[in-house]
C-alpha cells in the first residue's frame, strides 16, 4: 500500500513569533522531521497558506476586529490577523523543517474571496487544490497528516482525505491546536474520529 505524509502549513506565521502563532507550534517540528527520517513514504507533500494581501479572511480588509465573524460567499468566516501573505517571511516554511525528502507543495488560500483550510479544497468546496489528483496519480491509498493547526487546517485536511477515499491517520504528537476557544482542539479530535480518521498517539 502506497502512503504519503501530508505536512500542513508549518510556516513562520503559525510558529513562535508569527502573526498567527499556534501555542507550542515549534514543538511539532522535531517530531515531523523524525517521522520523515524513520519512515519510508512514497510521497511527502507540504501544504502552504499563500494569501494575497487583500484576502477577505483578514480582519484588516473588512474593517473588523480579529475574532469576529462575517458571512463570506454564503458561509461563516472567522476574522484572522493578516498572515501567510504571498512572498513574505511569514508565508515561508519554518527553517527547522527538513524539506530534503519533500516531493510536492500545494498552495492554498490564493483566492481573495474564499478561505481554504483544507489542503484539498477551499472552504466553499468550489475549487480543488490539486492535492487529490496528485495523490491519485501516484496511487496513494494511505495518508498520514501532521502540522498546523489541528483545529483548522489539519482537521479539514484529514476529514477531506477520508471523504476522498484515503485511509487517514493523524499523528497527535505532530500537531497543535490554535484553541481560539479552550475546547477547540479536543472537539477537533472527536470530530475527526467520528468521520473516520485514525489518531495515532
Automatic annotation (TrEMBL):
Known EC number: 3.5.1.19
Taxonomic source organism: Chryseobacterium kwangjuense
What's the protein called, per UniProt?
nicotinamidase
Q: Give one Pfam hit by family name.
A: Isochorismatase
Where in this chain does the record put each Isochorismatase-like domain? 4-199
Indicate the enzyme's highest-level EC class. hydrolase
Name the pathway it acts in: Cofactor biosynthesis; nicotinate biosynthesis; nicotinate from nicotinamide: step 1/1
Keywords in alphabetical order: Hydrolase, Metal-binding, Pyridine nucleotide biosynthesis
Keyword Metal-binding in the entry? The reply is: yes
Q: What InterPro entries does UniProt report for this protein, alphabetically?
A: Isochorismatase-like_dom, Isochorismatase-like_sf, Isochorismatase_Nicotinamidase
| Recorded family membership | Belongs to the isochorismatase family.
The cross-references to SUPFAM superfamilies, in alphabetical order and at most eight, read: Isochorismatase-like hydrolases (SSF52499)
This protein's gene is called pncA
Give one GO molecular function term.
Answer: nicotinamidase activity
